[in-house]
Write a structure and sequence with these properties.
Layout: E1 3-11, H1 31-34, E2 37-46, E3 52-65, E4 68-77, E5 82-91, E6 100-104, E7 108-117, E8 120-131, E9 134-146, E10 151-160
Parallel strand pairs: 1-2, 1-10
Antiparallel strand pairs: 2-3, 3-4, 4-5, 5-6, 6-7, 7-8, 8-9, 9-10
């Protein structure tokens, strides 16, 4: 694999800070360059008190055609189950939209919205998740930080409405 992606997801309340504060941080993140090709990632879900609930490994096949990217994610979970999500990302056109993205996936309610500045990317979306025989909508806020040309850290918070 050419890159390494580390991820962690936390069940918590959602408090956001602006992505603009990362404008000067290096290395400068360009999603279509970093999220391109084969990526390998690991992560975990933690409860509110910090206990690890579930771990995962994800293989991502990412391809871009101009301003549109497709991320084909294959997850293997610590309980032996697998899942798949295919994202379609679009960089928004126009000078005022520089660094803005939208995204869709089959289990995303509506449209995801994101913004990159400096080494950071903020990504927010609602996910329709199957839980105990029923579906619930969970709000995710991902903060991704490019550490170097091979490592990105992702911290996701999730909350229910």
């Amino acid at each position: 694999m050419k890159t390494l992606l580390l991820a962690a997801a936390f069940l918590a309340g959602c408090a956001t800070h602006g992505v603009e504060q990362y404008r000067a941080e290096k290395p400068e993140l360009k999603l279509e360059h970093y999220l391109n090709g084969q990526l390998d990632g690991w992560g975990m879900f933690q409860g509110r008190s910090g206990e690890v609930k579930k771990r995962f490994h994800v293989l991502i096949d990412a391809k871009w055609n101009g301003d549109t990217g497709v991320l084909d994610e294959s997850f293997t979970w610590s309980d032996g189950t697998t899942s798949k999500r295919i994202w379609t990302l679009k960089r928004q056109p126009g000078v005022g939209a520089q660094g803005l993205y939208t995204g869709t996936a089959a289990d995303v309610v509506g449209q995801a919205k994101g913004e990159e500045r400096g080494n950071a990317f903020y990504w927010a979306y609602d996910l329709d998740l199957p839980v105990d025989g029923r579906n619930i909508v969970v709000h995710f806020e991902d903060w991704m930080y490019q550490m170097n040309d091979r490592v990105m850290l992702n911290r996701a918070t999730m909350g229910m409405y």
